[in-house]
Amino acid sequence: MKNREVVHMSAAKNGVKKKGTLEKLLTSQRDELRARITGRLDEVYIDREPDDEAALASDSVTTDMTVATLERERRTLEEIESALERVKKGTYGLCAFCGESITTARLEALPWARLCIHCAGRASNSAAAD
Ligand SMILES: [Zn+2]
């Protein structure tokens, strides 16, 4: 959280994020997410009591939710990984669809955004989720 504030402030001052700062931000978000996913995997696959049927029944609801969250987080993790690739290739911040620059405001809200706001809107309208 503290890191994020620093990045936010320097981005506001410079207009554009420095490559190193951006890489650091994405890397720390990736590591955080990885740790969270690892923690959830433990919940799902280790913290179970297969002998206790009642516990298992209530547990499976929690497990379903955890698995759904896990899926979402895994997808986000992939997005972050590919954003890091784009930083390395120098294509970060450009829309993958139309090639236009993604606005700073959008990147502040979603640092791993692949599409500009227009293309993202179009993609979700045509049910191809971003
Ligand atoms: Zn676009």
Number of discrete domains? 2
CATH superfamily of the largest domain: DksA, coiled-coil domain
Number-wise, the strands total 0
Mean pLDDT, all residues: 81
State the helix count: 5
Q: Give the helix proportion (percent range).
A: over 70%
Q: What is the string of helix and strand elements?
A: HHHHH
Secondary-structure class: mainly alpha
* Shape type: elongated
Give a list of the ligands.
Answer: zinc ion
Low-confidence stretches: 5-15
The major β-sheet equals:
none
- The CATH class designation of the largest domain is Mainly Alpha
What's the CATH architecture of the largest domain?
Up-down Bundle
Features:
130 residues, mainly alpha, Four Helix Bundle (Hemerythrin (Met), subunit A), 5 helices, elongated
Concise account of the structure shown:
Helix content is about 70%, strand content about 0%.
Explain how this protein is built:
- Helix 2 runs antiparallel to helix 3.
- The chain is built from five helices and no strands.
- It has two domains: 2-91, Four Helix Bundle (Hemerythrin (Met), subunit A) (Up-down Bundle), CATH 1.20.120; 93-130, no CATH class.
- The longest helix has 37 residues, at 53-89.
- With 130 residues, the protein is mainly α.
- It starts with a helix and ends in a 5-residue tail after the last helix.
- It binds zinc ion.
- Zinc ion binds next to helix 5.
